[in-house]
Amino acid sequence: MSKDSRLPRSVIFGQVVIGPPGSGKTTYCLGMQEFLSKLGRKVAVVNLDPANEGIPYQCSVDIAELVTLEDVMDGLGLGPNGGLIYCMEYLEANFDWLQSKLDTLKDHYFLFDCPGQVELYTHQNSLKNVFAQLAKWNFRLAAVHLVDSHYCTDPGKFISVLCTSLSTMLHVELPHVNVLSKIDLVEQFGRLAFNLDYYAEVLDLSYLLDHLASDPFFRHYKRLNEKLVEIVEDYSLVSFIPLNIQDKERMKQVLQAVDKANGYCYGDSEKRNLEVMMSAAVGADFQFTSALAVQEKYITADEKSVEEEAMEL
Q1: CB-based burial of residue 171 (10 Å sphere; 0-12 exposed, 13-18 middle, 19+ buried)?
Q2: Of 192, 218, 270, 301, which has fewest CB within 10 angstroms of its CB?
Q3: What CA–CA distance (Å, rounded) separates 307 from 202?
Q4: How far apart are CA 300 and CA 285, in angstroms?
Q5: How far is CA 173 from CA 167, 169, 246, 286, in A?
């Protein structure tokens, strides 16, 4: 049977949850599944990570029924990175299996829990082709790219995160929502040099370069960092939404962004109100809680900035 012989009749909405290892993708899927269920949506979580063991959420489709990373590594003598790429290529070659599983789930909102290997979203095409095939099956998806918020405490790592996020957005070719996960734990890894809104909105990065230049190691790579920052600013695509998975207001903010990105808020599956429709139309959120409010809740205020303390030292 051909790949497109059983196309779904109605539009299906969902999220593909991507990001580096340890960024909280599986925890996000669990939290979002519970959050959406309380809103009255029928949710189906699809595990596309062949290395994911001990899944905490209720899984409707599991790639482990098709292929597992452990079997590939043992059978083909591959390492974890090569094994993951093989698993994704194997999934791409078995679209009929995936379609048969998805066809049994009617009128559901989908969450796709994806692997954590960064190369799959920046260089390799298998997952990109899987998402493109889902679009042919009438899925309307938005990519939720999770990044651990502790990278904000290190200017060099934050520039790397910006480049990775931009590369992923351009390669995956889906509507994109970037999320700073575990925002409630950000201070465990160090203090922020600037207010949280600076990192969330990716404001003037020249200040970040100045802060980076104070490090003797990065001082030698000033021109390189300038060019990387120029690329990010020239595209002007990357911004972040801070998230604590236990905070309902933060979850609501992320969900509103995702619903706008994949078009769910324009549908008729739920009762819509004028406020939601108007906020989607003008690109603003009337119930938006600024990053400064998040900072007040999760980050300890201090009279002295990091730069002032450095000058004193």
Answers
A1: middle
A2: 301
A3: 19
A4: 27
A5: 10, 6, 30, 28
Gap between the Cα atoms of 138 and 144, Å rounded: 19
Q: Which residues contact 207 (CB under 8 A, 6 or more apart)?
A: 194, 198
Strand ranges for the chain from DSSP E: 12-18, 43-47, 59-62, 109-113, 139-148, 176-181, 241-242
pLDDT in tens, 124-170: 999 999 999 999 999 999 999 999 999 988 888 999 999 999 999 99
Determine the 3-state secondary structure of 176 from DSSP: strand
- Give the total residue count for the chain: 313
CA–CA separation, 271 and 171 (whole Å): 35
- Helix or strand (DSSP H, E) at 301: none
Q: Confirm if 296 and 197 have CB atoms less than 8 A apart.
A: no
Measure the N-to-C terminal CA separation of the chain; round to a whole number of Å: 70
* Tens-place pLDDT, residues 219-276: 788 888 889 999 999 988 899 999 999 999 999 999 999 999 999 987 655 544 444 5
What b/e readout covers 138-169, taking b as 16+ CB neighbours within 10 angstroms?
ebbbbbbbbbbbbbbbbbeebbebbbbbbebb
